[in-house]
């Protein structure tokens, strides 16, 4: 088990507390294994009727995977081929699949930052957001792509919201998450004592319904995404990243200007890979999306774009990534297609059993 994962059972609810606050609960391989082992043990435990996953602090539910680990392991071996990296993504994606198909109510209280890997351990369950929720799939900012099932849940967001959130990596709040179909319930911090009473006093078998009844009395307010939906759907349904950019450049509005400024900081190659990933994900089930992502993440470490992104953002902190290619115009269809070429035959795929 992990020192950063605490578990207990009370009143029919299995409680999992993420407790790595200095790293914003970023997931290590050890944490992924502890979560998986716990969920497997509780799946057949008659004393557990529901599972609640939360953080020990309101600052972050889970900020993603441990990207320092990715950088260190990727840099230590040719073409980023560390066995520990391979294990991490295979086991993390298996955990994501387990969450999506867990036979008991699985509830995630997404206080604070919830990004990347944090989305992966939340999106398959009942999702509660709060005033402090800062949600994103920001992988294009570090030369990665929206994984952990992102190709599944982003491709099923209304309109072109999935393309917008994936290609820009922008951060949204509780109201936006509800509008995008990435959250189920809103819990205001001002009424937190009432929520805590529901979570602790309700028998596990009744917990999901009790949360829904509690949340029905609360409104997250206006969504900025909803206000910008017309522009988002217009630009991000253009069919490709170059077409999206051309559409934005033809628009003199504030949304287009801000979005172009944001896209200028992202990896041109991984924006293009992300767009293709979401397009393909719309035709796949959860397992198919995770198998596709497992293939793409292997290609990503071979390419090295993530190593440069993490270097610039986290290691050297110069915020000057040297993307390769440096411009969107230099990204070719063959470069994008390379990420989707099978790494393994079907019978040897590490997620073939999902």
UniProtKB/TrEMBL annotation:
Residues 14-340 form the Enoyl-CoA hydratase/isomerase domain. Keywords: Hydrolase, Isomerase. Gene3D superfamilies: 2-enoyl-CoA Hydratase, Chain A, domain 1 (3.90.226.10). InterPro entries: ClpP/crotonase-like_dom_sf, ECH_dom, HIBYL-CoA-H. One of its GO terms (biological process) is L-valine catabolic process. Pfam families: ECH_2. GO terms for molecular function: 3-hydroxyisobutyryl-CoA hydrolase activity; isomerase activity. SUPFAM superfamilies: ClpP/crotonase (SSF52096). It comes from the Bacteria. This is Enoyl-CoA hydratase/isomerase family protein. It comes from Duganella guangzhouensis. The lineage of its organism: Bacteria, Pseudomonadati, Pseudomonadota, Betaproteobacteria, Burkholderiales.
